[in-house]
Design a protein that fits this description.
Number of helices: 8
Structural class: mainly alpha
Order of helices and strands: HHHHHHHH
Helix content: 55-70%
Distance between the termini: 52 Å
Largest sheet: none
């Protein structure tokens, strides 16, 4: 979270270049599995120091360094998906807002891949859960993300608001699928 070069090294070891035919390295399976777990469970927000304090200037510098490296090394998509998943752990305040540096990054026009990672990270955080035949938990989550979308949109972060609405829509679709599946099984 503080050393962009360490993150980039991890990406280069774990993922091949997007346009390469095959991987050029062989990594022992146990190490490969552990490295994958590190990136899949990556939840530390770049720019966060050892005491847990977030620094927006460090975040912005880290993001810029990683983006440059990822583009130069043909690992942009996978790097942005990984970082987006980590950004999904940023906590919202009581008004439905997160740090403005993170919102600004997620709102940038050229950050579609980062937003994809954020969306996937959000859904993955839920983990295994009980399925309510009435879809109540999913509807509550949808309402929460819709409220957050409204809050960030009033601040001018339209793309981030659209992302939050797509998450809300995903939960609504899940609720409808659960209701439909339960009603079909009842018949």
């Amino acid at each position: 979270a503080n050393e962009p070069n360490s993150f980039c090294d991890l990406m280069s070891v774990l993922y091949k270049k997007r346009h390469d035919e095959a991987t050029t390295r062989t990594i022992p399976q146990a190490i490969s599995k552990r490295l994958f777990q590190l990136t899949y469970q990556y939840s530390v927000i770049p720019g966060t120091d050892w005491d847990g304090n977030f620094h927006s200037d460090a975040f912005n510098s880290w993001m810029e360094a990683v983006k440059v490296w990822a583009k130069e090394n043909d690992r942009y998509e996978v790097s942005m998906h990984t970082i987006g998943g980590a950004l999904s752990y940023v906590e919202f305040d009581k008004d439905g807002i997160i740090d403005t540096a993170v919102m600004a990054e997620l709102n940038k026009i050229d950050n579609d891949e980062l937003r994809k990672g954020y969306r996937l990270g959000t859904f993955n955080q839920r983990g295994v859960h009980w399925i309510d035949p009435e879809g109540k938990p999913e509807k509550e989550l949808a309402q929460k993300y819709q409220s957050r979308a409204n809050a960030v949109e009033t601040l001018g972060y339209a793309r981030f608001a659209e992302l939050l609405r797509s998450i809300a829509d995903g939960y609504i679709a899940e609720a409808e699928a659960n209701i439909r599946e339960f009603s079909e099984n009842e018949d």
